[in-house]
Structure formats: C-alpha cells, structure tokens
C-alpha cells in the first residue's frame, strides 16, 4: 500500500539524507544494474530527527503553526477577557491560567513551583506505568498465542470478545466491589483498557505476517519454536508497537476517569476537586498537564519502537515498499 | 535417465553429498474444498524433473514449468515444497516418496527450498543473518562456521559489500540473489523458484538469467522454476513443461537440446528460434483460453 | 466430547456447525461455570475465592435482568444513553468529516489547524467534563460536548489518513480525463476516504459509549455528585446508583446491557459501512 503523502515526502527527504550522509554510495560489480545502498551504520534517530528539524524550520510550516496557536489562544483570550462573551464568563482566561501555572505562590495551590504538582503527576504516571506494564506483559503473549494458534484462538477469543464491549468505566463499581483499597480498582480499570488494545493489535500483527516468511523458515529447517522466535515475534513487532501506542492513550483515558470517580491524588483527581472547590484555573492547568504527559508517554513508546526496529526505520526512510 | 547411483542419506561434511534433485510427479490431483464440490486445480499431472547427466559431479537439471496465470502451477510447486497437500497421486524426490497415498502432505525441509515470488528475506534480519539462518536453525553448523561460509558465498555472488545491510535497503533484484544464496547454504537437492523474475524489468531479468545459470553451473543443484515467459523457459531449461489452463496438466513436454553452458548468444541462435516456433502456438492457445476464463491470479 | 456435542446438535436441527463454533461455546460455558462457582464459593465451601466471590453470580444476574427488562425506567435509561451516544457521535461526524477533508486537501489549512489539534488530542475527553459543565448551560449539553470530543478526534484522524492514502494515480487519471476540482472531490476523494471514515466511525462509536457511560457516572454520581443530582439518568448513572444503593446484581446487569448496546451499535455501523462501500467486500 502506498504510504500517505506526508510520510512519502518525509521518506523521500530522509532517503537523500540516509544515502548521502551516512557513507559513500556503493555500487555492485558484475552486473549492469546498480543497486544504490547506504552503509550499515546505524541511522540514529537523533541524526534523522535533527535533519528533519532543519528541513521543517525552512518550510512554511512553523509559521502556519504559530498562526494556528495564535488563533486558538487569541480566540480564548478575546472571548473570556476582552469581549466577555456570555457563555465564557465563568471560564478562566489564558492570562489567568498562565499566571497561576507559573507563579511562585499560586492562589489555588498548584503551579510548576509547587512540589504537590509533581506529586500528582508522579502518582498518575506511576499508575499508568503499572497498568501499562501489566497489560503489555499479559497482553502481548496472549495476542501472540491468539494469532499463532488457530485452536487456541477458537477457545479463548469468544470469551475475550464477550467481555470487550463493556466500556472500562462501566467496570468501576464492580471493580470497587471486587478489589480492596482505592488504588487497585483504578489500576485494574486502566489495565483492562490497555490490555484489550495490546492483545488485539498483537493478534492482528501475527495474523498479518505474510505466510511466505513462515513457509521460508519451514523450508530452511526451522522448528516451530524457532519460527515463533525468529519470524512471528519480529514480524508482528510493528503492529505490537502501534498497539502499545494506542494502549498508552487508552490507559490515560481510563485512568483519568477512574481518578475522577474514586481516586486519591493524581491528575484526574486534581481536575475534579478543582471543580468542586471552584478553583477554575487549576482545572485548565490539570488538563494541559495531562495533555503534555500523555504526549510524552506516547512519544516514548514510539521512540522505543523506532529503536528496536531499526530495520523498519531504515526501510521506511528509503522509500517503503520497493 | 534411470541410472541409480548409490544413495547416501544425510550430509556429512567429509563426503560429497549425492544429489540428483530428481522429482517425479505421478498422476497428482489437487482439489480445493470438499471432494465433490471443490475447485479442481491440478488434473492428473505426470511429469519428471530428470536427474542430470552423471559426470564427475552428480548433476541436477533445470526444468521450467510454463503456463498461463492461475493454472495451478504454484499449487504443484507448493505440493512439492510441502505447503499444500495433494488429493491423490504421489510425488517422489530421488525415488523417495514426498507425499502420496496415506501421507498427502510433504514435510517442508531444506532439501527442497523455495525462492518466493515476492521475496521472503526476513526484513528484520540483516542479509547475512538471513543467509546463515538455515544452517544455524538446523544446528548443522556453528555460528562462526556459518558466517564464514556465508561471507564466502556472498562474495562469490558479488554481494560482499551488502553483508550487513537489511533487505529493505537493497533493490528487489539483489534481494532475489541473496535469497538464492540463503537457499544454497543448505545444500538443497532442488531449488524451487516461484516465478522469481516476474516482478523485474527485462533488463534486470537478462542479468538475472545469466546469474542463475552461473549458480547452476557452480552448484549443480536441480532447479525447478515456474514462469510464464516462454523465452526465459527455453533459454534456461533442460526441459520445459507446458501446462494447460486450470485445471492444469502437461500439454507438451519439451527437452531442450541446446548444449550447456549457455550464454546470451543463444537467444539469437537458430535452434532457439526453432524451439520457440514449435512451442509458441501451444502456449498462445492456452493463454487465450485462460484470458477467456478470466482467471484471477491467486 | 466435541463429537458428542456435534452429534447432538446435528440431530437437534440438522445444523452442522464447525468445530470452531463449538470450541467457542465450550469455553464460554466454562467461563460461566467458573464465574458461578467463584461467586458462590463462600456459601458452598466456606472458602472465598479472592475477587470473584464478591461478584454476584450469573444466575442471580440473569434473574435481575428478567426483572429489569420489564421495568420501563430501565428502558428509559437505555434510551437516554443511546440518544446521547448518537447525538455526540452524529455531531462528531458532521463536524469531523468536513474538517478532516479540509485538512487533507489544503496544506495551508492543515498547517494551521493540525498542530492545535494534536496538542488538544492527548487530553482525555473526561478531563474536559468540569470545563464543559462550566461552559455549557445545561447538563445535557455538557455531556454531549464531552461525548462529541471523544469521537471527534478519532474521526478526524481517520479521515485525514484515509484521504492521504488515496493513490495519487487516481488523481492523475481523473485529471487526464478532464475532471474539474469539484468532480475530483466528489468522485475520488469522497469515495476514497469512505472506508477510513467507516473505520473511524466504528472505533468512534465505541469510544462514545465509553465516554457517555463515564460522563453519566461522573455527573450523576461520583465525587462530582453534587452537580445536577439525579438529573443525569442513563445507564451509566443507573450502574453508579446500583452501586451506591448496594444492589450488586443490578450493577452487573447494567454492565451487560451496556455491552449489548455497544455491540449492537458497532455492528449496525459496520453493516451500514459495508452497504456504503460495496466495492470493498468483493472478493
């Protein structure tokens, strides 16, 4: 399938970068056909990123981006603080929020200078990490088996699918009933959502491996477990990592919900209590923080994937399906 | 054709392995789906990949299977390789039975290695990791031995500088060659090539043909390949089997009497043209039938 | 055992299901048995299975469901939730699809709007609830807004991805045959993006259900319980209420109802999707 336009463009410029920047171009002897190939040095994510960054700055894109943000913030500012539009009257304006967020002595108690702020971030992150870790450790093997063994799938998948349509939040009361304490239900909830995303995508990854690879491995004398280790697991990796990115996003979704309903500390809790205690600017601070932390965790997963799958990073950089 | 040299089982590194790579397809039928309602893909096929002339080195032969798209040629190849079962009949490799009554599916193994149409080099392994995959998985060689042999073989094939690259970084023609080296590392008795040059342009193809012949002359492994290109089949093969459209059976079996070693001057030789004339009509007939039937490539 | 079950079913109606069907049934049955035993473990054996013993047994839940199905207030809640889902979902499609298409078609528009979009996307929809309540005059609207957000981001992302993945050769072919820009939009971009829209919709509807249930729980109950009081309604609120009222069987019954409703809406969307993109199902 041809890559989307944005990726194609990036891939094209990456290709030039990879070919010219890493080593002299090598050509083959014996045949008239020349295969242009880059040296085997690792294409570091850093080098590629700096290259992309330099290109980006020279394009019109940064300016458009600024226009976008200016527009958004401007609209917010104008509607709340200048024009004081009816619906916006109670909302905190951007100046108020920013002042609060960056003040050394915040009126409502939370800013980047207050340790409590980081405590909440840490508590939420910790829950995410626990749930995500569990979901990955259980979900990936399960997905691998579901994809790898038809029989296993026939037994296990129906039960799996039976429980899936129930949204994570609907489990909250049951989770509170089932598990003691206030931490475990929240983590369970987050785990559940993550787990489904991970397991499903892993299964899909295994199922989408081109059967020729498995057949080739069989021809070459690999036994079943060798095929599993050398073909199925690496072959499913791209899908697994996509699943992990989705899983992190879904985890945050459930975590916030869980924290708002029944948690102590954490960013969801902050947003909720800020509302009940009429500390409106802090609500926005909480939301913005969530956005940032969520993005960082997602990017971390993606970078880990890029690093572990060097072969794919380089393949995509050189033009995808050739 | 029926000379029987001594059979030596197994490959020990001190003895020269006896390989003929002679495959005999005997009245094979393949039906997809239920017996009475399924699709008949292969209809009572019988032909042979003959053992080559026995000279100082046991030889194999090059056999081309030619036919229109979707006629069932890949089914036969898959049956030999052990990916599909057959419905009846039997297939022999060097007079040992691969599959037949009671055992309808052969076991895939390194004596018959397939080189796939779209390439099946593992994209997540470097070229040399790919090439050494077979012997290491089978435990036939240690890592060091395998790497040494692989580097030698790749250097032989002109691929010395690509040893540590990933398949995604090289062109598809070169990938094909790496895949063949990967297969040859295992001393197979026969190489099964499934339309290997289908996706290549004709300039690259011509180079690949000579490369394939070079491999054949050096390694004397039997090569059984599927193609839809008559010129390619006659140029390369000792024998060409022309198949009908689905369900396929051999329509015409031709032994090519142009002597080996061949090179590209053969293409303009008189005998070559004669052979083309003999067969072109038959091939064209089947092509028209296939077109009319609107066969989709599987 | 498989053979015996199959033989039985063959006699029963002359249906012959495949092995895979029966394996699924067996495992679901095993699951239910395990659940039943776990729930009753304390009463039966004095030993309380760690978590499952707190869960009401399937048989009890089934009885509860029979009762519920006959009560109009239950169907009221179900209807309310479904309505909210479709409101939010519909709004997300109506705004998201054109926006996505605009972003896919115009590089400038994309450059302006996409960064803002990407910055807002990681914020979980539920985090918007308090802000939404402050902003919108009624509770209904605030829930609807949050629901809308849930599906909106997914739909837009899928539309952009779908539009960008259209093979550039289709455009070239159309241009070479003399199509106007409007024609290209109507006949290539729209149908070409349709499969992705369908995928975005199917995923989006699942998210919408999750958000609706969550929003109902939060604004009708939970720590923000003071907001709006019992005016929430809907299945999410029903579940939370059952919890507060101590009726655990109702909790599970409610969960199952939501699951069924969610499944039906996804299946419905998929069917509609198949109907709208017949070219994809051809083999």
Describe what you observe in this structure.
The complex is a heterotrimer of chains A (322), B (298) and C (283). By secondary structure, chain A is mainly α. Chain A is built from 13 helices and no strands. In chain A, helix 5 packs across helix 6, helix 8 (183-207) runs antiparallel to helix 10 (224-262) and helix 10 runs antiparallel to helix 12. Chain A starts with a helix and ends in a 5-residue tail after the last helix. Chain B has 298 residues and is of the alpha/beta class. Chain B has a domain at 23-111 and 188-293: Rossmann fold (3-Layer(aba) Sandwich). Chain B is built from 8 helices and 10 strands. In chain B, the strands form 2 sheets. Chain B has a 6-stranded mixed β-sheet, with helices on both faces. In chain B, strands 2-1-4-5 form a 4-stranded antiparallel β-sheet, covered by helices on one side. The model of chain C is unreliable at 221-231 (pLDDT under 50). The longest helix of chain C is centred in the last third of the chain and has 40 residues, at 181-220. Chains in contact: A-B, A-C.
Put the structure in a nutshell.
The complex is a heterotrimer of chains A (about 325), B (about 300) and C (about 280). Chain A has about 325 residues and is mainly alpha-helical. Chain A has 13 helices and no strands.
Total number of helical segments of chain A? 13
Oligomeric state, counting identical vs distinct chains: heterotrimer
Helix content of chain C: over 70%
Q: What's the story with the biggest beta sheet of chain A?
A: none
Q: CATH homologous superfamily of the largest domain in chain C? A: MetI-like
């Amino acid at each position: 399938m041809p890559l989307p336009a944005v990726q194609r463009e990036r891939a094209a410029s990456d290709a030039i970068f990879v070919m010219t920047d890493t080593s002299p171009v090598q050509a083959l002897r014996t045949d008239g056909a020349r295969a242009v190939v880059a040296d085997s040095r690792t294409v570091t994510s850093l080098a590629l990123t700096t290259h992309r960054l330099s290109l980006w700055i020279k394009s019109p894109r940064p300016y458009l981006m600024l226009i976008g943000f200016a527009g958004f913030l401007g609209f917010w500012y104008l509607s709340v603080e200048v024009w004081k539009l009816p619906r916006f009257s109670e909302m905190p304006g951007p100046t108020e929020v920013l002042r609060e967020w960056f003040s050394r002595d915040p009126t409502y108690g939370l800013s980047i200078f207050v340790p409590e702020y980081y405590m909440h971030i840490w508590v939420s992150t910790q829950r995410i990490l626990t749930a995500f870790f569990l979901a990955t450790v259980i979900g990936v093997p399960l997905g691998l088996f579901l994809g790898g063994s038809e029989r296993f799938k026939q037994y296990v998948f129906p039960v799996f699918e039976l429980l899936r349509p129930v949204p994570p939040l609907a489990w909250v009361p049951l989770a509170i009933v089932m598990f003691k304490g206030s931490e475990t239900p929240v983590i369970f909830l987050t785990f559940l959502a993550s787990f489904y995303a991970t397991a499903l995508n892993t299964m899909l990854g295994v199922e989408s491996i081109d059967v020729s690879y498995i057949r080739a491995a069989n021809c070459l004398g690999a036994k079943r477990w060798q095929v599993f280790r050398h073909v199925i697991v690496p072959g499913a990796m791209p899908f697994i990592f996509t699943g992990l990115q989705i899983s992190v996003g879904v985890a945050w979704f459930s975590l916030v919900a869980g924290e708002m309903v029944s948690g102590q500390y954490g960013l969801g809790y902050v947003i909720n209590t800020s509302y009940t205690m009429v500390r409106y600017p802090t609500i926005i601070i909480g939301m913005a923080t969530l956005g940032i932390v969520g993005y960082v965790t997602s990017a971390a997963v993606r970078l880990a994937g890029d690093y572990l799958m060097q072969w794919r990073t380089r393949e995509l950089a050189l033009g995808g399906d050739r | 054709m029926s000379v029987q040299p001594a059979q030596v089982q197994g490959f020990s590194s001190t003895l020269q392995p006896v390989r003929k790579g002679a495959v005999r397809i005997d009245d094979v039928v393949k039906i997809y789906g239920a017996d009475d309602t399924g699709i008949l893909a292969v209809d009572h096929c019988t032909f042979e990949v003959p053992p080559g002339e026995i000279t100082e080195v046991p030889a194999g032969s090059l056999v081309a299977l030619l036919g229109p798209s979707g006629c069932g040629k890949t089914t036969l190849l898959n049956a030999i390789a052990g990916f599909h079962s057959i419905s009846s009949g039997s297939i022999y490799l060097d007079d040992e039975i691969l599959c037949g009554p009671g055992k309808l599916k052969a076991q895939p193994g390194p004596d018959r290695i397939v080189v796939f149409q779209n390439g099946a080099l593992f994209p997540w392994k470097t070229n040399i990791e790919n090439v050494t995959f077979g012997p290491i998985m089978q435990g036939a060689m240690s890592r060091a031995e395998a790497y040494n042999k692989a580097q030698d073989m790749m250097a032989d094939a002109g691929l010395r500088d690509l040893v540590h690259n990933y398949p995604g970084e090289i062109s598809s023609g070169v990938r094909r060659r790496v895949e063949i080296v990967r297969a040859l590392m295992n001393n197979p008795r026969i190489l099964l090539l499934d339309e290997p040059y289908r996706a290549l342009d004709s300039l690259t193809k011509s180079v690949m043909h000579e490369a394939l012949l070079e491999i054949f002359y050096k390694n004397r492994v039997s090569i059984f390949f599927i193609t839809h290109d008559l010129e390619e089949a006659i140029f390369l093969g000792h024998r060409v089997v022309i198949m009908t459209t689905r369900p396929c059976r051999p329509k015409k079996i031709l032994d090519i009497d142009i002597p080996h070693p061949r090179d590209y001057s053969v293409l303009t030789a008189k005998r070559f043209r004669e052979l083309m004339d003999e067969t072109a009509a038959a091939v064209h007939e089947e092509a028209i039938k296939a077109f009319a039937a609107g066969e989709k490539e599987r | 055992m498989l053979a015996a079950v199959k033989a039985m079913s063959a006699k029963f109606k002359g249906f012959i299901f495949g092995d895979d069907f029966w394996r699924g049934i067996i495992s679901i049955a095993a699951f239910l048995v395990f659940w039943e035993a776990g729930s009753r473990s304390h009463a039966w054996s004095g030993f309380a299975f760690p978590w499952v013993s707190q869960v009401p047994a399937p048989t009890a839940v089934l009885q509860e469901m029979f009762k519920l199905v006959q009560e109009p207030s239950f169907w009221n809640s179900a209807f309310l939730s479904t309505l909210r889902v479709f409101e939010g979902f519909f709004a997300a499609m109506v705004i998201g699809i054109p926006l996505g298409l605009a972003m896919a078609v115009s590089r400038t528009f994309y450059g302006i709007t996409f960064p803002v979009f990407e910055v807002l996307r990681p914020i979980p929809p539920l985090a918007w609830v308090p802000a939404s309540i402050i902003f919108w005059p009624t509770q209904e609207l605030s829930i609807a807004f949050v629901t809308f957000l849930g599906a909106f981001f997914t739909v837009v992302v899928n539309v952009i991805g779908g539009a960008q993945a259209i093979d550039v050769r289709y455009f070239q072919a159309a241009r070479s045959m003399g199509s106007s820009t409007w024609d290209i939009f109507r006949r290539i971009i729209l149908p070409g993006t349709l499969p992705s829209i369908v995928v975005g919709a199917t995923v989006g509807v699942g998210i919408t259900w999750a958000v609706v249930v969550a929003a109902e729980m939060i604004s009708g109950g939970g720590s923000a319980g003071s907001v709006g009081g019992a005016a929430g309604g809907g299945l999410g609120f029903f579940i939370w209420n059952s919890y507060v009222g101590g009726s655990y069987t109702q909790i599970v019954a409610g969960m199952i109802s939501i699951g069924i409703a969610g499944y039906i809406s996804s299946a419905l969307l998929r069917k509609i999707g198949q109907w709208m993109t017949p070219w994809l199902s051809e083999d």
